[in-house]
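sry for the spam today, last one i promise. struct tokens for design, 257 residues
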């Protein structure tokens, strides 16, 4: 199932997105998409509604340096264990919403990533059962103020600005995410291209590691790390993250006034 959130003339709703291309339809889900969702009977052509971020997480957990080539380009060794950090949920935006460049930074980078969406409350999940707690997967952009990251010596400010966590376009629930192509382009020029099979710590290991630290709640998002090829974005650019089996998350870039 493709799960999304939309803004329609009737308000905001979770939906199941069905069909392909111009024939896609958004079928309204009653209440929430967790468990066995039920439907209200209302639907809209997808072209007549606006896609929002597919989920509003209580927290966004990120895995740093999870591709060896990216760790190398950042001048560090590949970590033996997952390195985790948080982005605030206020950084989440949906497809088409501008990434706003803060005036306090002169070096903002894109980071295309696969995102895991958690489907039920869980703690201390063993890797062998990790996929049981996954609702699905979506595309993400871990936007980062690289100069602030260097200046602060830790990542909260650099990763935490409003609009620095685009998610979308929807959540794919029926997907084997162990070996998917992930690609990022800026204004049509490919900047990153890799596969999730090259993750240093795979999805089950990530969920085991994170859930040993903190309780995960339905809708929580885990960003699995970015491959090599990160680089700057400037006002006027459009950044697109495309993941095989999911689709493309595209966001324009604008300067914050």
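last one done:
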């Amino acid at each position: 199932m493709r799960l999304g959130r939309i803004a329609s003339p009737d308000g905001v709703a979770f939906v199941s997105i069905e069909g392909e291309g111009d024939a896609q339809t958004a079928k309204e889900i009653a209440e929430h998409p967790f468990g066995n969702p039920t439907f209200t009977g209302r639907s809209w052509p997808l072209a007549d509604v606006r896609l929002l971020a597919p989920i509003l997480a209580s927290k966004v957990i990120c895995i740093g340096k999870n591709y060896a080539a990216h760790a190398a380009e950042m001048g560090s060794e590949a970590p033996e264990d997952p390195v985790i950090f948080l982005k605030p949920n206020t950084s989440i935006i949906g497809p088409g919403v501008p990434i706003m460049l803060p005036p306090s930074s002169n070096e903002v980078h894109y980071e295309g990533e696969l995102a895991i969406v958690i489907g039920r409350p869980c703690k201390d999940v063993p890797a062998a059962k990790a996929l049981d707690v996954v609702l699905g997967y979506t595309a993400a952009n871990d936007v980062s103020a690289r100069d602030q990251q260097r200046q602060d010596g830790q990542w909260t400010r650099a990763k935490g600005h409003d609009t620095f966590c685009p998610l979308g376009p929807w959540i794919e629930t029926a997907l084997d995410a162990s070996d998917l192509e992930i690609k990022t382009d800026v204004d049509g020029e490919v900047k990153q291209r890799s596969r999730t099979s090259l993750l240093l710590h795979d999805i089950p290991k990530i969920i085991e590691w994170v859930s040993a630290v903190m309780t995960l709640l339905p809708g929580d998002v885990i960003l699995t790390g970015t491959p090599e090829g990160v680089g700057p974005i400037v006002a006027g650019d459009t950044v697109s993250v495309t993941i095989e089996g999911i689709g493309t998350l595209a966001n324009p870039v604008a300067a914050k006034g």
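The radius of gyration is 17 Å. ok im logging off now
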